[in-house]
């Protein structure tokens, strides 16, 4: 395959050529008083990196819930005028969403607000179900009408149906978790309770903290920091935490096994100042860089990182190898929305707008360029060329993840194997396509070692094709009317 075919992909995302996480969630329960809107806004702003397609807030005021959601960045949707119009309450949940190209409809924006026979419920979810299609088929056969294409609406339908059978919203959530399969970390709000739940394999992060007597849930600990909350702990795989006027209760789903946290949280997705399942993201990326230096040593003059997630790994590479660390790129911080650029010239210009090489760092030098991954190869080739144009005599590319060779079924937007450069080319061919002097990937076995102190195992299916649970298979399912026994944790 000629190089130019890999440089003519239909679109370039906000990070151009990277996997994208589906979304971030937040929830706040205030024991006394109101005033939850500002905290929710600040938390979503801190989670903006997890999704830039749409965002929303649902506020609970004395049991009455109202939602506010729209396509756009947090600062675009929730302007000062908009925030002043939102009625304050005692509880709120928030959501920011990244959408694949075929799911950008405003109707998919979250949180969802559902009115049902026993009241109302709001839901914000991060992840993707592997049995969403078959569940949707059965629900539609029963008369359900869907207004969106996201899996979250399927989850909402199942929870509300279970709510009709049982005595509490938390029992309905637990019963629904027996039916749905896949990756999900979600916050659910009823008129009087706030619930956080994580799937039995722990694919997506979810943590818990407090501000005085208030209880806070978030996808990442950086969101807790942004609202002045103290981190308490991560929500366990298969755990359901319920907050109400009576306090905090926890239920544990049977047969949960925390073996599926997406390793790409540490490589790319999470913010470096977050701690995910007991491990520092910043330190994990530095360790990945150190492993790269040991596995793929090179004679060079300077180590640089591709902003943002490549910076920490580059620092680790530098510290391990002894090659000086330098700032090689300036990133334009004011480009926040997704690029959908039809022309080759536009795509090349987009990279130049996003990144600019610092000539004084790289001119006349042998450069080690550390990035988190190569998915399609388009952007990496452009960035290598930027360094060449800035005067680099050699460019050695190092990636802090193994080659992407398989699709993700659990919420990361890596959906077409034919677009993955590593699935269609050898490492040497990739080196030639991107125009590097050498290329080195993080060894697969190092994935289990980078997140020191992590209290879980990882899903590495995008690298290996082996997943903690079976990929989606469209088939008819049995009815789901068996109640689930809850066990106090």
Keyphrases for this structure?
Glutamine Phosphoribosylpyrophosphate, subunit 1, domain 1, 7-stranded antiparallel beta sheet, disordered N terminus, 489 residues, Rossmann fold, disordered C terminus, 25% strand, alpha+beta, 2 domains, 29% helix
Structure, described:
The chain is α+β, with helices and mostly antiparallel strands and 489 residues long. The protein has 17 helices and 24 strands. The chain has a 7-stranded antiparallel beta sheet. Strands 5-6-7-8-12-13-24 form a 7-stranded antiparallel beta sheet. The longest helix is centred in the middle third of the chain and has 15 residues, at 281-295. The radius of gyration is 23 Å and the shape is globular. The relative contact order is 0.14.
Share of residues in helices: 25-40%
Instruction: Please state roughly what percent of the residues sit in beta strands, choosing from under 5%, 5-15%, 15-25%, 25-35%, 35-45% or over 45%.
Output: 15-25%
How many strands in all? 24
**Tally of separate domains:** 2
* CATH hierarchy class name of the largest domain: Alpha Beta
Radius of gyration, in angstroms, nearest whole number: 23 Å
Task: Write the CATH homologous superfamily of the largest domain.
Answer: Aminohydrolase, N-terminal nucleophile (Ntn) domain
Q: Classify the fold: give the CATH topology of the largest domain.
A: Glutamine Phosphoribosylpyrophosphate, subunit 1, domain 1
Task: State the end-to-end distance.
Answer: 55 Å
Q: Outline, from the CA principal axes? A: globular
Rounded mean pLDDT score: 89
Largest sheet: 7 strands, antiparallel
- SS-derived structural category: alpha+beta
Per DSSP, the total helix count is: 17
CATH architecture of the largest domain: 4-Layer Sandwich
